[in-house]
Structure formats: structure tokens, C-alpha cells
Amino acid sequence: MGKAIQDLLNEHEAILHVFSILDNMLTSPIPDEKRDLIFGDELVNFLTVFADKCHHGKEEDVLFKELENLGVPNEGGPIGAMLQEHVMGRQLIALMREALLSADLATFKLHAIEYRDLLRSHIWKENTILFSLADELISDARQMELFEKFEAHEENVIGHGVHEQLHAQIHVWEGLYHL
Ligand SMILES: [Fe+2]
Ligand SMILES: [Fe+2]
User: Fold this and answer.
1) Domains of the chain
2) How far is the CA of 123 from the centre of ligand 2 (A)?
């Protein structure tokens, strides 16, 4: 496994872990609207910054471009399908944010479930199909170069130290929702 693909797989694990926390929030036996609304705001921030800007940004600006250059089709192919799901994800994040603005926890939960289900299936497709293909097509040496681009992207998009803050945030959620 090359370094670039391993980095994206690690980010998938972090996103899936956050969905387990969301699952616990959705099935919590002790409802607490105020707590869940604050979590909702923090979750939307995490999904916007980490899942979309950082992770989907690395895929779109670096990996998918590399794959297209290697002849993997975009429109009508696996890259186009993945891009479409990124767009759907952004629309669902916007709907979650809108629901939170009016403190509508029930609507927030509905869109959070839609987003979770979309991304779980999206990640499964990338892990099993697109990333296996990418790891075969892109040499380990080239993946080191792509990983350097990922690091630059991360620095650009989320800035120094934010990654650590997000991880610390996840630990707080784990305590809150007993994961
Ligand atoms: Fe993706
Ligand atoms: Fe991904």
C-alpha cells in the first residue's frame, strides 16, 4: 500500500469512527436536546472542514486528477460517480446546517442519517474499488509525491494545528456519547 492511498484510508477510518459516535447520539437512551444541538454544530463543522474540504479536496484536486491522467474515465466512470456523491454530501451538510439554525433537531437528525448512509456507502466503494485500482496504477514513489501534495493541501485548507483540534474534539464526543 502506497503512502497517499494509506493516508486517505486513515481519513476514511476517522470519518467512520465519527459516524459510530453519531449512531450513539441517535440512539441515546437519555435525550438531551441542548447537548445534541451543540454536538450537531460541532459535527457539521467537522464534516465541512475534515470530510469535505480536507479529505474530498485531496481526492478531487490530487488523486482523481492523477487517475484521469492515467486513463481512468471521469464522466460515466468511477471518478464521475464519486464526484457526484461529494456534491450530494455537500447538499446534505447544507441542509443539516439549515436545520440547526432553527434549532430543529428532528430535521437535523434526518439529514445526518442521510449523510451518514451516503458516506458509508461512498467510502465502501472507494476502499474496495477505486482505491485498490489507484494503488495498483500509482507506484509507491509517485504516491510519496502525491502525499506531499496532500500535506500542502491540508496546510492550505485547514491550517496548522486544526487537525489536532479535530482529533481532540472526537475524544470529547466519545466521552459524551459513551463510545
Ligand atoms: Fe470520496
Ligand atoms: Fe474518500
Assistant:
1) 3-176 (1.20.120.520)
2) 6
Cα 60 to ligand 1 centre (Å): 8
DSSP result, 8-37:
HHHHHHHHHHHHHHHHHHHT-SS--HHHHH
> What pLDDT was estimated at residue 124?
98
Mean pLDDT of residues grouped by 10 in the chain (179 residues)? 97 98 94 95 97 97 97 92 98 98 98 98 97 97 98 89 90 93
Region of 178 please: left (phi>0), alpha (psi -120 to 50) or beta: left
Q: How far apart are CA 50 and CA 103, in angstroms?
A: 23
Contact 19, 168 (CB under 8 A): no
Give which of 48, 6, 60, 86 is closest to 162, Cα–Cα.
48
Question: Of the bound ligands, which one is closest to the alpha carbon of residue 60?
Answer: 1
The residues, any chain, with a CB within 8 Å of residue 154's CB and separated by 6 or more, are: 54, 58, 163
d(CA 24, CA 174): 9
| Alpha carbon of 35 to ligand 2 centroid (Å) | 29
Ligand 2 center to residue 13 CA distance, Å? 10
